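Researcher: Go.
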Amino acid sequence: MNPLRAKSPVERGQPGELLTSHLLRTLIALQAVRRRVGGIPGRAPEFWTWAALAALLHDAGKLPDGFQRMIGNTAEPAEAWGERHEVLSLGFVDLLLAGLPADQRMWVAAAVAGHHRPFTCGPGEQPRKLPLLAQYGGDQAEDFAAKFTPADQEQLTGLSEWLHDTGRRFGLPVDNLAHHTDLRQLTDAAYSLFGQLMDQWEFSLAPGSGAGATAVLLLGAVTMADHLSSADSPLDTSHPLNTCYPARLAGRLTAAGHALRPHQRDAADLTGSLLLRSWTGSGKTEAALLWARTQITDLSERTGGTPRLFYLLPYLASINAMTDRLSHELESAAGIGVAHSRAASYHLARSLADGCTDEGGDSVDAAAKAYSRAEATRNFRELLRVGTPYQLLRGALAGPVYSSILIDSANSVFVLDELHAYDTRRLGMILAMMRFWHKLGGRVAVLSATLPTALASLVRDALQNHVRLIEPSADNPPPVRHRLSTREAHLTDNASLAEIRARLARGQSVLVIANNVRDAITLYQALGPYCAGLHGEDSAHLLHSRFRRMDRTRIETAVLKRFEAGRPRQPGLLIGTQALEVSLNLDLQACHTSAADLEALIQRFGRVNRLSVLPPAPVVVHEPAYVTRRGSGESLWADGVYEAAPTRHGWDILTRHDGQPIDEEIVTGWLDEIYSGPWGEQWKQQVIQHQQDFGSAFLDFALPFDDRSRLSERFDEQFDGTEAILAADRGDYEKALTATGPAATAGKGGKKAGRLRADEYLIPLPAWGGTISQRDKALGVRVIDGIYDDRLGLLAIQRDLHHRYEPGEVL
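Model: Structure:
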């Protein structure tokens, strides 16, 4: 008789993991999750005891012969079983926890039964996986029992003894059932408890009930422990933002002849959430880190946990840049995770840049290591993570997959940079989530150079006024780094091109930002050769969102080499789109840009005279063309991208100040003027409506065990857009996907590491990109028949005219 196993063999000829080993590892992982999260506000004192009991018992139902045969642990050939082991696990819950109060036993049962499958699904829904109520809800006791037989009585007795002894060893309230339980008693107990569970969770909870949130958090704790156990990925316990950071920062400033600014000291002294409004270059990042260190210390003392720090940004490139910056600032590259959909690509690029292949290594090995690192982040290893809010918003989808995100966000610290960059729907969702984090003991900081009063008020409301605004004192005004000019000529007009050429001829470094990809390419084709003729081939660069990943990485590296802040200044030309607003630490001498909303313009200006070492540098704003765009009816958009109303209002303000020096303090007043007008009131109401809609639909958890897989798909479609490869790259993509190497073939990461290498050929497309691409089922990727240039990016997609893509389209 083979010992009970929990999983199939990882390698041929090797047995799978012992069931008792897996249950013990999950229980130990649960203790690690508890030490990390600590006591959660609003949860019962017994919460972590329920979670530990569920971790111990969650897979005990893998006892039957049918399951053991399915995973290859019997003499017979493996075959599908078709039953759900977690349902039988309820029998152990009912019998081993007979001495526990009934309501507490039900909490444990809910987490055990729900750790793989939903209980229910909405009317008319056809979920990918059959909900438990649909699979077992119509069974009588005899039918139910027959599905989980045969099973060996000796195995049942041994497992029961082990569960009792292990529970007692960990101080858990378990009873001894080993000597008086047979399989039928076990199935009858599971059947009874299953019926009680379905009665409790089949229908919506009463409005305002906190039970749904407790259920999701409990499920999150168990599934997180289960994933950690299976991945064999220990949680970090040493915070990269350690207690030495404030003294180390102060010492570094002193050595350079500087000191902490007043607003940085104020942030460091604050206990609670923060609104930080401070000009570019004033040390907002350092202030946020000092504030975060204070919150980590305070929350750790209050909860007994180790708070996580999430540094959240809206754009992929800015996330990568911030990760590099924090790695340097905190001297802890290994302790910082990257949590976005391209995380593995980021780590691949870094591992290759570190000389892995140059030193005789294998790119396949590098890919496998990069995948492993990204996978560790997804398993919640790091205590400091840089990413997008969308990764944390997925926690609202709950269920076995996403509830772990919620438990990991409890008692955590959140820094949100560039909050202005989100549209009303996404901003409303973030504000709703912000309120939920606050209720779970979280602390939130919002950073901005120009935080409009309207946005600050929305944040205050989300945090229930438990937040303080900090900004530099009046005797520490922002530097005047820019001199504003406006031009009626469009950015692509001949007069505009002549002005930019004149600056290049004078040896200046010039930043040119268009509102769409088409205009950026047009400008580069007109100006790039001229600049290269004056200052060399490496002096002119183009960056936008329609490049293959490998090409974008190459371009960003070249751009930083030429224009990074702090480097010796060189003449040259950098042309791009919104991808340049916040992505890279750049410092050029002049800017020409198409008009957009004021927040975007300030970000663009921030790439010019960044270190304030020059007199006020010229920032020239050109009037945009107002046109319609796909899917927006007759509404007009600035160059097809930005809303017409705020852009026009901003343009009126800019023209009133033509020729004047400007700073962020002045611009904040301009923003308040726009947000206090009719458009601003409409914007506010839209944000509030989206906040309420998201909160009521997702964050009251009225049906915490309902299927949400369809919502997950729609969520990803809304936020991630889509990507595709060129038909011409298909062969290279397939070759990268199937390449092998020592690290790739050593374990389960091989195929995924291949996918990671192949993904370097992907090009971002608009959210509706599925209509202009074809799905290659064999390779699992979308393919486009596109015209592409390594320097210019994607120029066109050749298909029918109705779905034709042109570079002006919005991503």
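Model: The first strand starts at residue 273 and ends at 277.
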